[in-house]
Structure formats: C-alpha cells, structure tokens
Amino acid sequence: MKILVVNAGSSSLKYQLFDMENESVIAKGAVERIGIPGSVLKAKGNGQEKVYEQDMPDHKVAIQLVLHALHDEGIGVIKSMNEIGAVGHRVVASGEYFKKPTLVDDEVIKTLEEKTFELGPLHNPAAAAGLHACMDVMPGTPMVLVFDSSFHQTMPEKAYMFGIKYEDYKAYGVRKYGAHGTSHKFVSQEAAKYMGRDPKSLKIVTCHLGNGSSISAVDGGVCVDTSMGFTPLDGVLMGTRSGCIDASAVEFLARKKGFDAARMVTYLNKECGVLGISGVSSDFRDLIAGAEQGNARCKLALDMFAYQTKKFVGSYAAAMGGLDCIVFTAGIGENTPTVREGVCEGLEFLGVKLDKAANNGKNTGAIREISAKDSKVKVLVIPTNEELVIARETLALI
Ligand code: ADP
User: Fold this and answer.
1) 328 falls in which pLDDT band (50, 70, 90)?
2) Closest alpha carbon to 130 in 114, 146, 150, 149
3) Atom of ligand 1 nearest to the CA of 209
4) Closest among 183, 178, 213, 193 to 336, alpha carbons compared
5) Active-site residues: which are they?
6) Nearest CA to 368 among 187, 185, 184?
7) Residue 287 CA: which ligand 1 atom is closest?
8) In this structure, which residue's CA is closest to atom 23 in ligand 1?
9) Distance CA 139, CA 263 (A)
10) Which of 288, 274, 286 is nearest to 337 (CA)?
11) 208 neighbors 329 (Cβ within 8 angstroms)
12) Does residue 273 have its Cβ closer than 6 Å to ligand 1?
C-alpha cells in the first residue's frame, strides 16, 4: 500500500509518499517559505528533481501543487490519486481531545477545528487546510491524524502542571502538552540505536530546532519533560514566537499597544521571536548572513536562541539527574553549526566536549557524531523522520 504523509509546518510543508511493502520513499518534497516571498516546491520522484517556483500564499495552494507534482511529467510516480491507500497528517496540538492517532470523520474534523485551533494557532489551521485539500482531491481515501503530543503523555504531573489554581486546570485543561513529539520520539530512539544502548538505560536531551523549536528530556525511553507548553508558544524564542515570557509583561504590553487578548496572541505568535529581535527575518539563514555583515540585532537573536536552548539542556540534565546524549535535529538543528556550538559552549562541566571540525562538517543527511572522542556526553546530529513514524502509525490504524 502507498501512504502519503503530509507534514504542514508553520512556514513549510513536507511530504513523502511511502510504499509500505518495504517502507521505501517513492516521492518526496518540501515547500518552503509559505506566505513569505520566494515560496518554492522542490519535488523528487523517479530519481529526478523538479523545482516549482510560484507564489504560495497559503497551505491549500501548496498542497494542490504537491498533488500535481505526484503525477506530473518526469517526476510523477502515480497515475491516479486512487493509488494512494491513505494519508497521514501531522497535527501539532491535541489538548486532551486526542491522545492517539485518529481516523478522520466529520466529528473528528469538527473537534479539530472547533477545539484545537486555539491550542495550536499557527499549525493546526495549516494541518486542517492540508486535510481539506487532500479530501477534495481524494474523496473516499482514509485520512489519519497523528498528533505530536502523544509522546509527551508520559510526563509526570509535577512536570506538566502550571502554578495555577488546580480547579482551573481541571475545568479548562490548562497544562503543558508539548509538541514535536513524533520527532523527539524518533530521534531519541535513533540515538539509542546509534549508541548501541538500550533506550531504558539512557538520559537524552533532544533539541528539535526549526521554525518552531522544542527541547525534551527523554529518560529511559520516555518523555519526562518538554519545553513547549499549553500551546507551541512556550519554551525558547523561535522564528516568530516569543517563547516564555512573564505573563505580567503580556498584560503591560497589551495596555501600552492597545491590543486586546486575541491581537496580543497574534503578536506573540507571529511578530516576535528572532524576527522581532532582528527586525530582519525569521529564517536563520538570513540571520547568519546579517550577523556576518555586522548586524548586531541579528547576532543578538542568534545568541538568545542558543543561550535559551542551552538553559533547557542544563535544566533537563538536572531534572533527569544525568546526561548521556544531546541530539540536534530539524531545520536549524541539522544545518546550523554556530547554533549547536553556542548551545554546547559552557556545558563542559556536564561532560560535553564538542569536536568543532566535526560540528562544522557537511550535512550528509545521515547521523553525525559531533562530540569529541573523549566527551562523556555524546552529541549527535540526527535527521528527523517524522514522516516515517506517521506512515507507520497511519498503516497500523487503517
Ligand atoms: P518548520 O517545520 O517548523 O517550519 P524547519 O524544521 O523546516 O521548520 O526549519 C526551518 C528553519 O531551518 C528555518 O529557520 C531555516 O533558517 C532553517 N534552515 C533550514 N535549512 C537550513 C540551512 N541549510 N542552513 C541554515 N538554516 C537552515
């Protein structure tokens, strides 16, 4: 059976078409810069690549182009959409509404749209747009939602609770749920495999650093804490998201700027983060170029990002009472040596020793060890593969 996996991020949309007979990828691609000038789809199939440069203002337009690419001349791998047995969609926020992969029906769509958009305002509408676009083109094909928060269900109460009135947690479900769970799960398992160790014996900090970023503490193979909270706004500052901020500063800023609550949430989600700090871009490639040209605010944004990430690594080592491995993954984690160096710098006291040459080496697309041979803590760059996990979960469900 062929399974299409759609992973709609806040500014990107990745897809892979799997032949589940042998879990091989028969077509894949990525749309970048959705909603940003210069949007592009790079699609692969039949051993060829085709680049589609065209304006993609939203995820719906992006998915329509992806579906076109799957049977386009040259790179096309299918003749009709009927060959696709099911579609697995990555969904970031589930609240307490969905705890495991779920087959889509009208009720599920209603819950997704009415209950979860406010929990993942950047991602869940993107996932729903992708879902509707697929349902339009492939009516009758089973659609499955795979949620990022599943892996974080093992967090103990002391880690997922906020310091608010307990009754309000009970009444409204306000607690930490986490995000990127599929990625944290995959890379922590890959790290254990690479180290030739039983996951149960390892304390790992996984750093999923992309346009959205989160850091998780994985102790004995299960998640015990994670940096994203009630929504994916919490944790480190990100592309356009503020990350954690004193709640009183939010009220103060809202008053000064004349924003109501909804406008304030949009501000914190879309106008802050490294974009707000630099005033230049949410894309780390632009920030690095800016810092190299002497732009102090680009440098500040990069420094803040590495510093805040480092603080999570240190606090999670304390939470777990040890550290065996740090994993870097996702767009920034896999491609930006300066960020990895900034995170590891100063963690020597925990037994972290980076091999700078290895860290600066080319991204091969395979697992790379970037710690020195005598480093007590292994530091690994592991390409995430959320799509494979989603394809497996989708097949298992249908
Ligand atoms: P998301 O899925 O959350 O949209 P990604 O994991 O695709 O995000 O990461 C996007 C980020 O990764 C962008 O900020 C981009 O700058 C960064 N990135 C991607 N490729 C590279 C690269 N080759 N060099 C530096 N940064 C990169």
Assistant:
1) very high
2) 146
3) 6
4) 213
5) 148
6) 187
7) 16
8) 335
9) 36
10) 288
11) yes
12) no
Interior/surface letters 211-249, b for 16+ CB within 10 angstroms, e for the rest: bbbbbbbbbebbbbbbbbbbbbbbbbbbbbbbbeeeeee
Retrieve residue 293's tokens. 């040209």
Average pLDDT of span 209-236: 96
Of the ranges 58-72, 228-242, 376-390, which one carries the lowest mean pLDDT score? 58-72
155 to each of 170, 217, 384, how far by Cα in Å? Answer: 17, 10, 22
Atom from ligand 1 closest to the CA of residue 330: 6
H or E segment at 369? strand 368-369
Amino acid 223 reads C
Task: Give the single-character DSSP code of 29.
Answer: E
Q: Which amino acid, 61?
A: V
Backbone angles phi, psi at 187, to 5 degrees: -70, -30
Tell me, in angstroms, the distance from the centre of ligand 1 to residue 109's CA: 29
User: What 3-state DSSP class applies to 239?
Assistant: coil
**Residue nearest to ligand 1 atom 22, measured at CA:** 335
378-381 vs 368-369, strand pairing mode: antiparallel
Cβ(189)–Cβ(119) below 8 Å: no
Pairing of strands 2-8, 84-91: parallel
Q: Where does residue 21 rank: exposed (0-12), middle (13-18), buried (19+ CB within 10 A)?
A: exposed
Q: Which of 169, 163, 159 is nearest to 318 (CA)?
A: 159
Based on the number of CB atoms within 10 Å of its own CB, is 66 exposed (0-12), middle (13-18) or buried (19 or more)? Answer: buried
335 within ligand 1 shell (Cβ under 6 A): yes
Q: Is 209:342 a contact under the CB 8 Å cutoff?
A: no
Confirm or reject: Cβ of 210 under 6 Å from ligand 1.
yes
Residue 329, both tokens: 């993954």
Sole residue written with tokens 């692969």: 44
The mean per-residue pLDDT over the stretch 130-144 comes to 90
Instruction: Return the pLDDT at 242.
Output: 98
DSSP category for residue 271:
I
8, 14, 31, 59, 277 from 75: Cα distances, Å: 22, 16, 16, 22, 41
Can you tell me which residue has the tokens 């589940």?
20
The C-alpha atoms of residue 362 and residue 370 are separated, in whole angstroms, by 11
Contact 333, 381 (CB under 8 A): yes
